[in-house]
Design goal:
The protein has 13 helices and 39 strands. α2 (79-88) packs across α8 (341-358). It has two domains: 6-353, Purple Acid Phosphatase, chain A, domain 2 (4-Layer Sandwich), CATH 3.60.21.10; 361-591, Alpha-Beta Complex (5'-nucleotidase,  domain 2), CATH 3.90.780.10. It is α/β, with parallel strands linked by helices.
Length: 646
Amino acid sequence: MAGALFLSMAGAATAQEKIDLQVLATTDLHMYLEDYDYYADKPDAGVGLIRVTPLIRAARAANPNTLLLDNGDLIQGTPMGDWVVRERGVGKDKPTHPAMATMNLLGYDAAVLGNHEFNFGLDVLHNVYAGAKFPVLAGNVFKVDGDKDPANDPTLYPAYVIQERTLVDDKGAKQKVKVGILGLLTPQIMTWDKDKLEGRVTTRDIIDMANVYVPRMKKEGADVIIVLSHSGLSFFPREGGEENISNALTEVPGVDAVITGHSHRVFPGKDYEGLPKADLAKGTVNGKPLVMSGSYGSHLGMIQLKLEKKGKGWQVVEGTAMAKPIQERQDGRMVVAEPDAEVGTLLAPSHQGTLDYVRRPVGKVTARIHSYFSFLGDSAGVELVAEAQRAYVARALAGTELASLPILSAAAPFKSGGRPGPAFYTDIAAGSVAIRNVADLYVYPNQLAVVKLTGAQVRDWLEMSTRALSVIDPNKKEPQSLVNVRVPAYSFDIIDGVTYTIDLTQPERFDRDGKPANDKAHRIKDLMFQGKPIDDKQEFLVVTNNYRANGGGAVPGLDGSTVVYQSPDTVQSAIIEYIRAKGVVEPSTDNSFRIAPMPAGVNVYFDSSPLAQELLSEQPALSYEGPAPDGFARYRVDPLKIGGVQ
């Protein structure tokens, strides 16, 4: 049947017996196959499938009735992902992609695509996953077949697989159990990679499609149904079409367990305290096991299902879930999973190829570039990206009718701590610059894009961007964070070419979906172009990336309709080209934005890396206060000095 795939194993059934079925899951590996930080060019014991592998092997040894699944966002992330695609190449005449080779070695049973699988385009995606020796699923992504009838469009990859497994029951007897695995992912890929997908595929709602497929799977004999959902969790009621909605899958009749991800968080865990109908002790939502195992190989998701014989089939009667970390403190000391030797041997050629690639010299910088204070004012790293983008587009559009318009450039401080942790910052030493440093500065394989906007639309963009900063209550005496940790740093676009002030005591003008929240709110003050107040009707070209230009981040006015130029080249390549052309770059800032001073007595703090202490001379508004949760350092913000020139 379309959308289904069957694998069979022999066995014999015995009535009234019980089976313990274990389901292991990885998610959001983002090419962290090795335990190595290619940006810093040093080992990192806190990441890598190579260190998850011992946990997998131990879990299988404890219970041979085990499935191993991957929940997507696998092939994009570290420089190894870029090296494979852009340097070594993928295709029939190339070696198997290292992610596929590793998963084949470990015996994965199935995988779902994540949104970042589409970043390189469909051709690369197909070439990479052609090397998979396991079912690849994507039940809510459909090929456009050209007959103008979406109802009969086939799925890009099968929606589900039903595997007839031979499992051992509590009496030691072999039993046949049909395990159904359904794969779904966030439908927002049509926004984020619109330039690569429009006209080729479409997407549908996760829950709607689960309600279509699960009854089919039950009809086809599935005893157990596990959903791989590359989507996060939501604290809000379902409306339809959500990016993060995996917990609602537990309400779909027939679903026995859910594996989720996308949000780079851990469930069960403290991030989800108060999640409706969640039991964090058992790892369940609505009584059904659900797991989210962090990111980059930080955890292994583990679901334990108890099955009982019911008539001619099997039924899940109980389930629990947990996310086991690869490093944890036990009895006062840190216990870390050791890297797996077999995986290390397999990855050695790709690891060395990546090292050779990232160590390739590009040019020099005369001063240190870092992102420790990027939320407080213009930073040299963001400025360098903005300048490189603008230089590329100025050349590309020279001689065209667009060349007469002023060019602004939008960039964000991607690596600025937050959820990924206190090591997630850009820090480039003065001196020689290699490709790894460029990747440290700009971590995504985004392509350059240009949008044509009015001054009013530029203002709205900046208003949306300020959601990355907290709303500060000037009358509140309790400590308040300067940064809104719920908003990722990549949403904090700084637009170079204009100057402006951000008033944090003002409420947000837009909500998370880019819809008006408060028409009277104006966090952006003194928006100037060439020293004069910006004309709301004046037209500008703004350089950004394909993700943002096509609607990623829900910025008002950015939905793909304002794109006037789309480059095939990545932002990383533009930065490399810019540095090579200059030879030596002198990092600088033009103070595009500042934060308005706040009333005296307001208690505001800023969490950043402990390494930022040695650079406090750059920030007279900050003073070190002490350690902060999760390995960060806490800095006190002087509300009066914060308005000084950064």
